From TrEMBL:
One of its GO terms (molecular function) is orotate phosphoribosyltransferase activity. One of its GO terms (biological process) is 'de novo' pyrimidine nucleobase biosynthetic process. Its EC number is 4.1.1.23. Residues 34-257 form the Orotidine 5'-phosphate decarboxylase domain. It catalyses: orotidine 5'-phosphate + H(+) = UMP + CO2. This is Orotidine 5'-phosphate decarboxylase. Keywords: Decarboxylase, Lyase, Pyrimidine biosynthesis. The lineage of its organism: Eukaryota, Fungi, Dikarya, Basidiomycota, Agaricomycotina. CDD domains: OMP_decarboxylase_like. Pathway: Pyrimidine metabolism; UMP biosynthesis via de novo pathway; UMP from orotate: step 2/2. Belongs to the OMP decarboxylase family. The keyword Amino-acid biosynthesis does not apply. The active site is at 93 (for ompdecase activity), 95 (for ompdecase activity), 98 (for ompdecase activity). Pfam families: OMPdecase.
Length: 274
């Protein structure tokens, strides 16, 4: 059987029943972009300015909505307008980690009402399957998708080995809602027979810790290049944050960097299809 990561994004889009996964793969093919941009800035005006500037180069804008100091509902209206204007999906990197009843409230209520605007969100596997069923009760009727954290990019991460296997097994039981993983490697076959090519399952792999010019930061972040992540590791989407907006640079520089990462990510994808 041909391994998932050697199939095109378009071919894979048709196999997903989850609407968010299908739309993401379709946008990626349409825009020739497997670049998710993490816009971790703390003011609404700057956030929207950066999103508008990088919109053309990205398939997915990743947010940490709780770091925005002057958050209001208009930010969400404008973000959704930009997602239509530039044709990208929205991923709130919320990393839910509580019991089912609590995550239902955190996902749907409060100031941010994440489920109402975020196509994709993510959760830790640590609470067990009830975190998925809780989030799914809100997200599935809205056509949302969930990524489980199977691995992390930070030094000394405890998410490895049997923990990662447990996360994959949880995902397999909830294929309508769990569309893939935040991970550093592909996950098909993990925790089952162990032979990737024998297992015909497809999970999206979204990978943070991507940088072309640095190997890490002073707080444990570790970077690999788009080629290492996509061509060698088989990941589907690269997440880049400070590599694009970092260093207090102007908007044209941010756009130049976004296009550089888009081109590198796409080149790595084309290389692995061959
Ligand atoms: P950076 O500026 O490219 O280092 O930002 C990476 C982003 O991805 C940042 O928002 C993190 O919260 C996020 N992230 C990560 O870096 N590593 C992980 O394992 C996970 C998320 Br999960």
């Amino acid at each position: 059987m041909r391994p998932t990561f050697t199939r095109s994004y378009t071919e894979r889009a048709g196999k997903f029943s989850n609407p968010a996964a299908r739309q993401l793969l379709e946008v990626m093919a349409r825009k020739q972009s497997n670049l998710c941009i993490s816009v971790d800035v703390t003011l609404k005006g700057e956030f929207l300015e950066v999103v508008d500037a990088v919109g053309p180069y990205t398939c997915l804008i990743k947010t940490h909505i709780d770091i925005i100091e002057d958050f209001d509902q208009d930010l969400i209206t404008q973000l959704k307008n930009l997602s239509s204007k530039h044709d990208f999906l929205i991923f709130e990197d919320r990393k839910f980690a509580d019991i089912g009843n609590t995550v239902v409230l955190q996902y749907s209520k409060g100031v941010h009402k994440i489920a109402s605007w975020s196509d994709i969100t993510n959760a830790h596997a640590i609470p067990g399957p009830s975190i998925i069923t809780g989030l799914a009760s809100v997200g599935v009727p809205l056509g949302r998708g969930l990524l489980l954290l199977a691995e992390m990019s930070s030094k000394g991460s405890l998410a490895s080995g049997s923990y990662t296997e447990g996360a994959v097994r949880m995902a397999r039981d909830h294929r309508d809602f769990v569309i893939g993983f935040i991970a550093q490697n592909r996950m098909e076959g993990i925790g089952s027979r162990g032979f990737e090519a024998e297992v015909d399952e497809d999970f999206l792999i979204i990978t943070p810790g991507v940088g072309l010019d640095q190997s890490g930061d002073s707080m444990g972040q570790q970077y690999r290049t788009p080629f290492q992540v996509v061509a060698e590791g088989g990941s589907d989407v690269i997440i880049v944050g400070r590599g694009i907006y970092g260093g207090g640079v102007d908007i044209p520089t941010i756009q130049t960097r976004a296009e550089r990462y888009r081109a590198e990510g796409w080149k790595a994808y084309e290389a692995r299809l061959k």
